[in-house]
Amino acid sequence: MAVTTTGNLMFTKPLNKSRPLSTCSLSWRLTLSSPFAVSPLCSRPRNAKSFVVVAMMDAKPTVLVAEKLGDAGLQLLKKFANVDCSYNLSPEELCTKISLCDALIVRSGTKVTREVFESSGGRLKVVGRAGVGIDNVDLSAATEHGCLVVNAPTANTIAAAEHGIALLTAMARNIAQADASIKAGKWLRNKYVGVSLVGKTLAIMGFGKVGSEVARRAKGLGMQVIAHDPYAPADRASAIGVELVTFDEALSIADFISLHMPLTPATSKMFNDDAFSKMRKGVRIVNVARGGVIDEEALIRALDSGIVAQAALDVFIEEPPPTESKLVQHENVTVTPHLGASTMEAQEGVAVEVAEAVVGALKGELAATAVNAPMVPAEVLSALAPFIALAEKLGRLAVQLVAGGGGVKAVKVSYASARGPDELDTRLLRAMVIKGLIEPISSVFVNLVNADFTAKQRGLRITEERIVLDGSPENPLEFIQVHIANVESKFTSAIADSGEITVEGRVKDGKPHLTKLGSFRVDVSLEGSLILCRQVDQPGIIGKVGSILAGDNVNVSFMTVGRTAPKMQAVMTIGVDEEPSPEALKKIGAIPAIEEFVLIKL
Ligand SMILES: NC(=O)C1=CN([C@@H]2O[C@H](COP(=O)(O)OP(=O)(O)OC[C@H]3O[C@@H](n4cnc5c(N)ncnc54)[C@H](O)[C@@H]3O)[C@@H](O)[C@H]2O)C=CC1
Ligand SMILES: O=C(O)C(=O)COP(=O)(O)O
After folding, report:
1. Could you tell me which residues come within 8 angstroms of residue 53 by beta carbon, excluding any fewer than 6 positions away?
2. Based on the domain organization, do 84 and 169 belong to the same domain?
3. Contacts of 522 (CB under 8 A, 6+ apart)
4. How confident is the model at residue 33 (pLDDT cuts 50, 70, 90)?
5. From ligand 2's centre to the CA of 153, what distance in Å?
6. 390: CA distance to ligand 1 center in Å?
7. How many domains does the chain have?
8. Same domain (yes/no): 416, 451
């Protein structure tokens, strides 16, 4: 393939969409039934550009590691992928490089913006955050681009909690200031008299993983611990002897306040003038969460007025903060450069946690640490696996039966199961029906991440219905039906009495089968291509069609006939391994008894 170089980019000719998959530049590919199925670059540039950047010619995906990552994680990645460790990239450099990458791993120092996803040209499949907070990743843009975001939610919990306690104790005893003063040649024993922690009330704001661990440790120091978290279960708090209180109660009671909530639109600047005005005079604040949860200007005012006696901050709205920052320079403020997660142990831990999630996602597995996709436990996933393939095939079949009308706008998916509604997670199945409905008629790539978004964007209303069956709930599902309303069909027999295109499928011997088409009972394996014929039921038709296909060297894998009654209307479904030639199809259409027929590519 001819490649020309322009600056940092390698450009090649526009790729031919009709090229067989096996000749794509990106030869690794996941199975289509995978929820994170990767359609190669050549088959679906999402934002199709006149030129497509081609990354590499070997079989491995490329992972860009944009910030320092523990060695154990790097080794894990290298077993599966080409790993490009490029630190301190400018936003422009990141946007340039990203089009050559299948995965990106960052910490808190890299902003993964909408531009990054747009610049990836659809190639970026997964962003791994080697840590907890994902406020530096534009999750909406990731979801819209079908890019999975995973994080490492557990491996740095203890490190962050320990750093919170370190800041709490260092602040109370003026450790940083006293250290600086000795180094400046002073000996200020009276100036740096501290305050005791024992018996004081600590309010933990955000009682999640880190907050709970800080609470445990603070109790060990003899503090009274209360917590505010609108979403935390009371039994978890009471199990470690912590009382959950309202926001205002926490502010008005606490001697010390430690922040542990994520930065979200709801928590942004929640510690503002109003909040500071409700605090006890002389309160001391620790922030190892995110700088953005505090209005930094309001904190300076509260420090200057004495409402806040001291603050210890690991995080800032802008990182690194400007050197002349009044907050950083304030004598009652202790600062660290976002070190909460920076222990040897935590960095090795997050590196492994994120590398495993990224490799898994690149292999098409569902990640337990997915941030923008439903987390489906492994056992549920394996039980649903055959139905995932069925759901996609039914969507693909149904949409190819549409001839016209108002366009596909209203689709109902019915799940027949003996399981209770809470025991059947249909999110995955719905996503796969959407994938099947949209991919054959567009260049959009649909996966579990962007399925609902893509359907909504295309004005496709998906409703779901449960058909409750008696019997053993051992099987997750008996059958799935897909109904498309308000459309005409190119195969009128696919329209059921309800007036909707209706297809029904079951899993037989682990394989997806079509079991009903419109009002006709059929049974054909949903593989390869399908020929659907409607004819007046009479002897000899099967033989005629069979011999036309044999003459065209097309292997028939399956054939069934469903009829309303003997000698009445019948629907013949024929599974074929190869696609018949137009001549063969013409001959089938010319058989007098055949009233309509259609070829469906699954
Ligand atoms: N400084 C550092 O290096 C580190 C900072 N962090 C920060 O700490 C945050 C917490 O981490 P984890 O405990 O692991 O996350 P988590 O998700 O286990 O806990 C967050 C808690 O905040 C609560 N929360 C959400 N909105 C709230 C609100 N409006 N008011 C009070 N609570 C609210 C949630 O219900 C949840 O329980 C992360 O989002 C991250 O920003 C985490 C690790 C290291
Ligand atoms: O995990 C988090 O949320 C952190 O803030 C840690 O950030 P870092 O990976 O050290 O840049």
Report:
1. 9, 10, 11, 12, 99, 100, 121, 123
2. no
3. 514, 515, 516, 560, 561, 562, 571, 573
4. very low
5. 10
6. 39
7. 4
8. yes
Whose alpha carbon is nearest atom 17 of ligand 1? 208
* DSSP strand pairing (529-536 vs 520-525): unpaired
- Pocket of ligand 2, beta carbon within 6 A: 107-109, 130-133, 156, 338, 340-342
Both 176 and 311 in one domain: the answer is yes
Domain holding 467, by residue range, is 374-520
Q: How far is residue 220 from each of residues 165, 197, 214, 224, measured CA to CA in Å?
A: 11, 11, 10, 10
Q: What's the CATH code of the domain at 269?
A: 3.40.50.720
Catalytic residues: 290, 319, 338
At 324, which helix (H) or strand (E)?
none
Q: Identify the pLDDT of residue 29.
A: 28
Residue 293: CB within 6 Å of ligand 1? Answer: no
Averaged confidence pLDDT in the chain: 87
Range with the poorest average pLDDT among 160-169, 303-312, 394-403, 572-581:
572-581
Cα–Cα distance measured from residue 230 to residue 90, given in angstroms and rounded to the nearest whole number = 38
Q: For 146-168, how does the pLDDT look when each residue is reduced to its tens digit (9 = 90+)?
A: 999 999 999 999 999 999 999 99
SS3 33: coil
Calculate how far, in angstroms, residue 133's C-alpha sits from the geometric centre of ligand 2: 6
Residues in the chain: 602
- Predicted TM-score (pTM) of this structure: 0.77
Same domain? For 160 and 291 the reply is: yes
